[in-house]
Amino acid sequence: MEQFTGKVWLLGDDIDTDIIIPTEYLALKTVKDMAPYGFSPLRPELAAQIKPGDIIVAGKNFGCGSSREQAPEVIKALGVRAVIARSYARIFFRNAINNGLLLIENDTLCKDVKEGDEITVNVGESIEYNGQTYPISALPDNLLDILEAGGLVKAMQKLNGIIK
Amino acid sequence: MGMTIAEKIIARAAGVTAVKAGEIHTVTLDYLMSNDGTTHLTIDMYNKLRNPRIADKEKLVWIVDHNVPCDSPKTAASQKKMRDFARDNGITFYEGEGVCHQIMCEKHVVPGQLIFGADSHTCAYGALGAFGTGVGCTDYLYGMVTGGSWVMVPETLRFNLTGKLADRVTARDLILTIIGMIGANGANYHAMEFVGDGMKNLNMSDRISICNLCVEAGAKTALMEVDDITLAYLEEHGGRKPAACFKSDDDAVFEKTFDIDLSSIVPVVAKPHFVDNLAPVDDVKGVKINEAFLGSCNNGRIEDLRLGASIIKGHKVADKVRFLVVPASQEVYRQALREGLLDIFMEAGAMIMNPNCSVCWGSCQGVIGAGEVLISTGTRNFKGRAGDKNSFVYLGSAATVAASAIAGEIVSPYTY
Is B392 part of the contact surface with chain A (CB cutoff 8 Å)? Predict the structure, then answer.
């Protein structure tokens, strides 16, 4: 079972995709070019502060609004290992899985955790923080396959024997 | 056990007799719509596949509507990629014809279909009894190459509508009120189904406005039954025939039912920076505005323009306020021209733009600056949506927008 530990960045409720990557940056050539502007309307300094392996913890309805797939792509490009939120908007959820970004649902962690603290995730089982254990559920099998392959296109290429 | 409309449409698309909420099914899609927001990304991914093939090009509809006319060399390049690919592969392509969802309703969608759109407001097609849902460019690519996808069958929230909307109260006020009531994720992953005696008092434009905005409550889709109003609209628009007409069974299971008396709805606005941040218009009277926008897939139809024109006729747009009026399609534009509505708007000092997403998209027309306030019939008012990150967007009906454009501040639609 997979396990990883990361530093927490804490966000609130209803973080929409116009905040995650504003429209004006969608014309930039690559997701790598867009990443420095992630979350800029809300926290302009955050994108530069996030380091690979960090974890975003948020409230309800994370990723609501526009269907722009660049939103989970930017989060992944910043090196975020996983997002843990109370709930997700459904288009964002599909887009994240399709791009191999791990999304975890937990109702109470966001109320307890402090930004900058470290948490440990046992994928499909639990989160450990400050001596407490928070249960989490596993994704349905078909989505787990997509995630583990690194995204939908890779999962299909694996299925078709194009990649190992 | 009986099935809801959502379950019946998925069952049809999955080629099975029955489905239940919570199940995951493989489905064949009837249409796959994509616009200039992300099609160039889909094309890039497609070209990286080994031996890529389009499963059924007849199902693809590509529409340039977000940055029209093109606003920058970068956008010109991405649109050219989309245009060239469509032409080379015989894909139905529209450019400058209008906003994607308006085109789909005017020309393509029929009842009973299951449709993916690479745009969140695809839920609009529920007005025509079709299950439309928004996806990203990767899901779109998968559908393009295989002709299908996987869907989880949603639970349904039912809205039983009775009565009739009062004078100058619109379907926009109704759906904003509902979103304010259940919250920005109150319908998360659900289908929102609208039924009841009140439906006969809602025309197709009202129905599109209602269904279109449901994603702002987190809904997977919005659905309505097919009735004479639906059939008349389809007949007028190309003589289209339904694929299937579904009603929820009497013993279908709904997670919750809400009873809403249309006559109780009042004019409302969504305040910055959330669509569920509702207030009666009277509570925000006096907020000074810099720009007003009447248009978008939500309220850019002839009925919205008629309402706006009837209010602004004989008045002028307030000093230092920009009022942009943007018909949602060429069909609407030409009808507004014939009815003399565009003349009324221009006489008042409004700017009429070509059919496109315009101010709502916040990228190429009527972009607002730091500290500015916009009152808009667009779909969203998230922070920075319409321009500068330190700007403010209020959402309201065509009537509220027109009245506020005259006053130079937010006012009740009954003011003029």
Answer: no
Domain carrying residue B343:
269-407
Q: Residue B278 CA to chain centroid, in angstroms?
A: 19
pLDDT digits (tens, 9 = 90+) for A57-81: 999 999 999 999 999 999 999 999 9
CA angle B360, B213, B216 (to 5 degrees): 90
The answer to whether residue B368 sits within a structural domain is: yes
Q: Say if the Cβ atoms of A64 and B74 lie within 8 Å.
A: no
Q: How far apart are CA B243 and CA B122, in angstroms?
A: 18
Structurally, at CATH architecture level, domain A3-138 sits in: Alpha-Beta Barrel (3.20)
> Final residue of a domain: which of B198, B229, B262?
B262
Examine residue B86 and state whether it is found in any structural domain, yes or no: yes
Element (H, E) at B74: helix B73-89
pLDDT per position as a tens digit, B227-271: 999 999 999 999 999 999 999 999 999 999 999 999 999 999 999
For position B88, what pLDDT does the model report? Answer: 97
- The reply to whether B317 and B215 lie within a common domain is no
Same domain, B54 and B194: yes
Mutate to test the interface with B, among A11, A13, A16 (most CBs of B within 10 A): A16
CA dihedral of B101, B105, B107, B110, whole degrees rounded to 10:
130
Interchain pair A18, B385: CB under 8 A: yes
Decide if B416 is inside a domain. no
Judge if ipTM > 0.85: no
Q: Which residues of B touch A98 (CB under 8 A)?
A: 136, 138-139
Q: How many CB pairs under 8 A join A and B?
A: 104
> Which of B262, B289, B319 is the last residue in one of the domains?
B262
- B98 and B199 both lie in a single domain: yes
Nearest to B20 by CA among B2, B36, B34: B2
Closest C-alpha among B345, B353, B307 to residue B327: B353
pTM higher than the cut 0.90: yes
Parallel/antiparallel/unpaired status of strands B278-280 and B268-270 = antiparallel
Strand extents, DSSP E, B10-103: 24-28, 31-35, 60-64, 92-95
How far, in Å, are A101, A144, B133, B313 from residue A147 at the CA level? 7, 5, 22, 57
Question: Using a CB-CB distance cutoff of 8 angstroms, which residues of chain B are in contact with residue A90?
Answer: 188-189, 218, 220
* Distance in angstroms between the alpha carbons of the first and the last residue of chain B: 53
